[in-house]
Amino acid sequence: MAVRNRILVVDDDEKIAAAIRRALIFEGYEVDTANDGVAALRRMRDQAPDLVILDVMMPEMDGMEVCRRIRAEGPTPVLMLTAKDATEDRVLGLDSGADDYVVKPFSYDELHARVRALLRRSGPQQQQVLRYGDLSLNIATREVRRGERDIDLTVKEFELLTYFMRNPRQVLSRSKILDAVWGYDFGAASNAVDVYVGYLRKKLEAGREPRLIQTVVGVGYALRER
Fold it and tell me: What ranges make up the beta strands (E) of 43-134?
């Protein structure tokens, strides 16, 4: 299984940090968060990330100072987030050592594109074709195949299968799947995951192929062979 890039998201707004974290986890990254500069530097020393997404406006130690300290310690790429869009603010951020700069509000498509670009410069590109057994999924073209058979999926079915294929053999709870694929937890009474797993199984097994999405009783599901 390919090694996943680790990203540290630093923002004193916990809701923004959590939203970015969910979006990046869905894209296949390992994500940690910190809500202030001191905590961010401490976590970096405990386990160095492959990329830091860093908010500028934070209390006590702002993002500019955090960025300068990160840069003094090594070449970790830094993507800065800010509500300020003046040219001098961008220049200051880049002069502090940032590798790129995104102005709030931003689209997640733009954020993902900038993250991919920075990681390409610093390391191997994230895998675009995911495979497990005879199942393949192309993230760029959104094509899914089981052996020689093409499989048409809805948007949500594709997102759910992508999440399974980025986490093969791992037991995934229903709440974890809801958080990663739907962006929030519907609550214990929701059967959304069960319903969509049923849709996927019907399409993946239409040619009488062996089941790949297994039920883990009392927990959730796992993409694995029996």
Answer: 51-55, 78-82, 100-103, 129-132
- Give the pLDDT confidence of 18-76 residue by residue, as tens digits: 999 999 998 889 899 999 999 998 888 777 788 999 998 888 888 889 998 888 777 88
Decide if 1 is inside a domain: no
pTM: 0.58
Question: Do 37 and 89 fall within a single domain?
Answer: yes
Same domain, residue pair 86 and 161: no
Domain shared by 174 and 118, yes or no: no
Distance CA 46, CA 141 (A): 38
**Residues 55 and 13: beta-carbon distance below 8 Å:** yes
- 8-state DSSP, 83: S
Are 23 and 99 in a shared domain? yes
Asked if 170 and 124 touch (Cβ cutoff 8 Å), the reply is no
